[in-house]
Amino acid sequence: MIPAAFDYHRPQGIEDAIAILQKHGDDARVIAGGHSLIPMMKLRMAEVPNLVDLQDIESLKGITIQNGRVNIGAMVTQHELITNEGLAAAAPIMREAALQIADPQVRYMGTIGGNVANGDPGNDMPGLMQCLDATFTLFGPDGARGVKARDFYEGAYMTERDDEEIMTAIHFDASTAGYAYEKQKRKIGDYATAAAAVMLTKDGQTCSSAAIALTNLSDTPIWSQGAGAALIGTDCGPAAIKAAVAAGLDDIDPSEDNRGPIAFKYHAARMMISRAIASAWARA
């Protein structure tokens, strides 16, 4: 299919991009890697009279790690997340998750900002950002503001970002804690049927902190506070994992689709949470 005619804009700065969005209003959309918007335009499911390409805005690129804080520009690609050795040392779960996104061709173009900003419940990074307790920087006509990943998602494709705002960066604390990202999917490159991100720390043989987030098991990513709490103060043995799984399953609301019926979604979630906790505990 061929998309409807549109005007193409390639601003050099974030202020220029915001000005274009203000000028054209609902007739303008930004594009990062293009893996979500372009197919919709080709299928005529989305008509965008003004396409604003962010590729030339240098301030949206780059990964820095300073004083234990990781800062990732919104236009950083999944490939860069995988190959950046500093990031792999500071937050190894990022590489583990990025390697499970789609395929190399997609990862060369797909960006972390695009993955987290559009509110697709099937994307891998939103749940991971909740697990890491990340903060998103949004820039709009009134300047920059920060929004916690755990507060950002309101529903499928609905987020805290205003139409005239652009996500510019993602920030979170570096962590060498035990980590794991487990993903069940139908085939290589597919969205998750169920996925779980786990970060935990160990004090002796006792879990001292834990964060668990789930992907594609509701219309938003799910940070399961109860699942993490079920592990704290335990040895993360079978009983503790069972309690954490039960808490996680209480928080999800999967729907039947071409990835399987609801009962199968719950089964896949149970397996992913269990495996992720076990792997993270072994690495802690």
Observed structural traits:
5-stranded antiparallel sheet; 3 domains; Uridine Diphospho-n-acetylenolpyruvylglucosamine Reductase, domain 2; alpha+beta; 4-stranded antiparallel sheet; Uridine Diphospho-n-acetylenolpyruvylglucosamine Reductase, domain 3; Enolase-like, domain 1; 284 residues
Descriptive account of the structure:
The chain is of the alpha+beta class. It folds into three domains: 47 residues, Uridine Diphospho-n-acetylenolpyruvylglucosamine Reductase, domain 2; 112 residues, Uridine Diphospho-n-acetylenolpyruvylglucosamine Reductase, domain 3 (2-Layer Sandwich), CATH 3.30.465.10; 106 residues, Enolase-like, domain 1. It contains twelve helices and 14 strands. The strands form four sheets. A five-stranded antiparallel sheet has the order 4-5-10-6-7. Strands 11-12-13-14 form a four-stranded antiparallel sheet. A hairpin with a 6-residue loop joins strand 13 and strand 14. Helix 11 packs across helix 12. The N and C termini lie far apart (49 Å).
